[in-house]
User: Fold this.
Amino acid sequence: MNTTTQRTALVTGASQGLGHALATALVDREWHVIVDARTPSALEEAARSWGSAVTAIPGDVAEASHRRRLREEVRAAGRLDLLVNNASTIGTSPMPGLADIDVATLRTIYDTNVIGPLSLTRALLPYLTESNGIVVNVSSDAAVEPYEGWGGYGPSKAALDHATAILAEEQPDITAYAFDPGDMRTALHQAAFPGDDISDRPEPATVVPAMLRLIDERPDTVRVRASDLAESRGAV
Assistant:
């Protein structure tokens, strides 16, 4: 299956925020990177800065036809060493209470945050297995803390966390992580707090060194917080 020695990554939700910052870092490491995003214009603008090292495919990971297209691109690349399921949604902004959230919005959240990434991972398992690859599912502290108003997003990330742990048990030839980046200055975080000033949150690029360390060192813990990686490195 492998036709090239260049490492290949697939990063979803890469037109901005953490996905964009990570894709940029991987390009700097001379990886071939496949990226997607729901907004074609934003993805096209981001792709211009990456050049030929990146293959940009607009689309929604919640849609089966888009996942098939991503799989075909991986097949054409000949290998997959890293899958980062970063694309997420909070549903609607401002976020309603759990008693008020409508079922259609819940379905959208779960399709994007749980079903989409799990389905994409399943489709790409043969490539990840052959390369002894890594799956990083981007999580949140809302997966473990019951924040008011986060009743759609939080449980979806909790489900993704648990599925990641099961994947790690069932697939010994790959390494799977639920990665909690902490608060960041992103469009998703701003949508969760409409009207608030979130300029005190760190830029997504500040989290990338922790993600790269995760990829390089492959710690044994499935659920990993960026802050833990930073703290453990500082303690050495």
About this structure: DSSP finds eight helices and seven strands in the chain. The radius of gyration is 17 Å.
